[in-house]
Design goal:
Elements (H helix, E strand, L loop, with lengths): L9 H14 L8 E2 L1 H7 L5 H13 L3 E4 L3 E4 L4 H25 L2 H19 L3 H17 L4 H16 L11 H6 L2 H9 L2 H24 L10 H5 L3
Antiparallel strand pairs: 1-3, 2-3
Helix pairs in contact: 1-3, 2-3, 4-7, 4-10, 5-6, 6-7, 9-10
Length: 235
């Protein structure tokens, strides 16, 4: 089932701009910003859609609105990061199984084009482009199933990890290694092997989580006390 794309409201546009600004470190953690100040910083967005966008971000744990004070960006904790990967395992694995079962030739052509763009960005060592292509590939794969609520949840959980200022590129792997981690998954999807695609998606998510937690453990206090196996392998 194909999803019909509706025009974005001003609030939805403000939500995306504000979220991207946080992910790309244009805003600082634990600094209070007024809605007016944020609107000016983000290209002249009016206060009302910024405030409404902040309320949406607060619901998914990215910011905290302090009454009569402002909007504060919240750093991602270990618990939030682990829960984000748990949610991805719970949703993405069965969804990729379903997507592989119901995909059409048009779906394969569309995903092949996105996968090729992913390869181009990775081969050129474009870190920002590779991270975006990675996200776009996953979302395009899931959109084949057509469950927008699940897609929104997965997108938000991925962003919570990115908002931590954390990505495995370039610290734990390079752009091409990130692309290569999707090769077998993509081939399983194209060939129609749903169970293999699901298994590879699970392995991919756990591998990314393990690399990221190990990476962050080197600079965050007490993170080395945790094992991703204890938190992810039961799913």
């Amino acid at each position: 089932m194909k999803l019909i794309q509706k025009p974005k409201t001003l609030t939805e546009e403000a939500f995306e701009i504000l979220q991207d600004a946080i992910i790309n470190n244009h805003l600082q953690f634990n600094v209070l910003y007024s809605a007016t100040e944020l609107g000016q910083m983000l290209g002249g967005i009016s206060r009302t859609p910024v405030r409404e966008a902040a309320q949406m971000l607060e619901k998914i744990g990215i910011v905290k609105i302090e009454k009569n004070k402002g909007i504060r960006i919240i750093p991602t904790t270990f618990t939030t990061m682990i829960e984000s990967f748990q949610i991805r395992l719970m949703l993405e694995v069965p969804l990729v199984y379903r997507a592989t079962k119901v995909r059409t030739e048009q779906d394969i052509e569309h995903l092949n084009a996105i996968f090729e763009e992913f390869k181009v960005k990775a081969a050129s060592n474009d870190i920002t482009g590779t991270l975006k292509a990675d996200r776009d590939y996953h979302l395009a794969l899931l959109q084949i199933v057509g469950n927008q609520k699940a897609i929104d949840i997965i997108s938000n959980t991925r962003n919570q990890v990115l908002i931590a200022g954390s990505a495995t590129i370039p610290h734990s792997r390079n752009c091409m290694q990130t692309f290569d981690d999707h090769l077998k998954l993509h081939h399983a999807f194209v060939s129609g092997d749903a169970q293999q695609a699901a298994n590879l998606m699970k392995a991919h998510i756990i591998n990314t989580a393990t690399l990221l937690i190990n990476q962050e453990s080197e600079k965050r206090e007490n993170w080395s006390d945790y094992s991703t196996n204890d938190y992810l392998n039961w799913i």
